[in-house]
Amino acid sequence: MAVMVRRSLAKFGADLSIARRQRHLTSAMMCERVGVSKATWQKMEKGDPTVSAGAYAQALFVLGFGAPLGDLIDQRNDERGLLLSAERLPKRVASPGRRAKRARATAKHVPDAHGGSS
Fold first, then answer.
1. I need a surface site. Which of 5, 42, 45, 87 has the fewest CB within 10 A?
2. What is the pLDDT of residues 82-111, one digit of tens each?
3. Confidence of residue 38 (pLDDT cuts 50, 70, 90)
4. What is the value of pTM for the model shown?
5. In CATH, which of 3.30.70.2740, 3.10.20.600, 1.10.260.40, 1.10.10.60 is domain 3-69?
6. Do the Cβ atoms of 49 and 1 come closer than 8 Å?
7. Domain chopping of the chain, boundaries
8. CB-based contact 27:41 (threshold 8 Å)
């Protein structure tokens, strides 16, 4: 896992702990409201990457942050994504091997200048 991601998760966990304490909620209260064990809650407050995103999302909701994951990569706020046309967005993305295979198959059936196949 990238160092930047690990640091971000550690900060996120610390921020969860601070937000819980600012609201005068105990770890036991958070465990009950989020629906996780005490061990999992302790991992969450450390920013453990093995905890499910759903548990983190529920914790944010319990702490009053709403549902921020829903807007995290909203296409209207995706600067890189906005550079791409929504009309050109593929429904599925084939693996590089499949694309090459499909291109070779298409090339075999393309008529040449005399009307025959190449």
1. 87
2. 777 666 777 788 888 766 777 777 776 656
3. very high
4. 0.68
5. 1.10.260.40
6. yes
7. 3-69, 84-108
8. yes
